[in-house]
Write a structure and sequence with these properties.
Elements: E1 5-10, H1 16-25, E2 38-40, E3 46-51, H2 56-62, E4 67-71, H3 72-78, E5 83-87, E6 93-100, E7 115-118, H4 121-130, E8 136-139, E9 155-160, H5 164-168, E10 171-180, E11 182-186, H6 192-213, E12 214-222, H7 226-232, E13 240-243, E14 249-257, H8 258-270, E15 274-280
Parallel strand pairs: 1-3, 1-4, 7-8, 7-9
Antiparallel strand pairs: 2-3, 4-11, 5-11, 6-9, 6-10, 12-14, 12-15, 13-14
The protein binds adenosine-5'-triphosphate (ATP) and magnesium ion.
Length: about 290
């Protein structure tokens, strides 16, 4: 079908919730009851396939899905021919090498001639090759952290977030080899009609992302410090200044990044700003 696009998202797991909320924040409505494998939006030409994340790069490369949302770790590991349209900023994690806690770690040469268990043989293999380390890679699909304690391997390479799983299994992280976040990927060759729909979706995603990183700030300021305050919160074009009912005071409205807000808060207060409100922005189009 040419007038509808298909997106593959994780059915359930660490990617699914954020993937689906991003799509909902784009104003796209759909129903995803438990156990559903397919769904169609009621107000945007898009169809959803709910899959295991391992299968997403392959489905997109084959053209079964036009788009997919998947972690860069799976994407690089699967090594399929797809395009990365956009990094999405969620499901951030790292792939690391870990060894038993009691072992001394002299550096990467530790792994020379050793056995490493992982679910990421390609990423690990490329990393070892680039660092000229000869090691045996033992591919297993889950519970990688127990491999050393059961004598299956001397080290592991796995996803780490807080490190508590490693600790529970008597391991310590020694090298970070890859950083990952969720990405929007697409089939490399799409028809013009499909591309036009993808562009609409990207436009909405960008508006949502920009909105998330910005805040709408309102504050009251004495008129004689307006110049200083406007310089601290310059906004998109320039701030809005409205007179308060009380003489000599104004209300200043502006848009700025949250980081920028925190950086300038002391100076704003020192300049006389008070009654400061910071409000979330749902969407932002520049
Ligand atoms: P599936 O059943 O779909 O194959 P899975 O068990 O392989 O799921 P999840 O644990 O749901 O995968 O993780 C999905 C993706 O989320 C990972 O490939 C990675 O990109 C990212 N991820 C993994 N662990 C974390 C974490 N602790 N914090 C944030 N993101 C993570
Ligand atoms: Mg998986």
């Amino acid at each position: 079908m040419e007038n509808i696009i298909r997106i593959a998202v994780q059915k359930s797991g660490r990617l699914s919730e954020d993937s689906l909320s991003l799509i909902k924040e784009c104003g796209i409505k759909f129903y995803n009851g438990t156990g559903k494998l397919k769904s169609t939006s009621t107000n945007f030409p898009i169809e959803f396939l709910f899959l295991r994340d391992d299968d997403i790069p392959g489905y997109v490369a084959d053209g079964v899905a036009d788009l997919g949302i998947v972690g860069e770790n799976e994407l690089v590991e699967k090594n399929k021919e797809v395009l990365v349209l956009k990094k999405l900023g969620f499901s951030k994690c790292r792939l690391s090498l870990a060894i038993p806690k009691g072992e001394e770690y002299p550096g990467l040469e530790y792994f020379e001639g050793k056995n490493i268990a992982t679910s990421y043989p390609k990423i690990l293999g490329d990393y070892l090759k680039a660092n000229k380390i000869q090691a045996e890679i033992h591919e297993i699909s889950g519970s990688v952290e127990i491999a050393p304690s059961i004598g299956l391997a001397e080290g592991i390479c796995d996803i780490v977030s807080s490190g508590s799983t490693l600790m529970m299994n008597g391991l310590k992280e020694v090298e970070e080899i890859f950083r990952s976040e969720a990405a929007l990927i697409s089939h490399p060759n799409m028809s013009v009609a499909k591309k036009a729909i993808v562009d609409k979706l990207l436009f909405r995603m960008n508006a949502v992302q920009k909105g998330k990183s910005s805040k709408y700030v309102l504050l009251n300021a004495p008129n004689d410090s307006l110049e200083k305050i406007v310089s601290l919160i310059p906004g998109m074009r320039s701030p809005t200044i409205l007179p308060l009912a009380q003489n000599g005071w104004s209300s200043v409205h502006s848009v700025l990044s949250e980081d920028q807000f925190w950086e300038n808060i002391e100076e704003l207060r020192a300049a006389g700003a008070e009654g400061i409100l910071v409000v979330p922005i749902e969407k932002m189009i520049l």
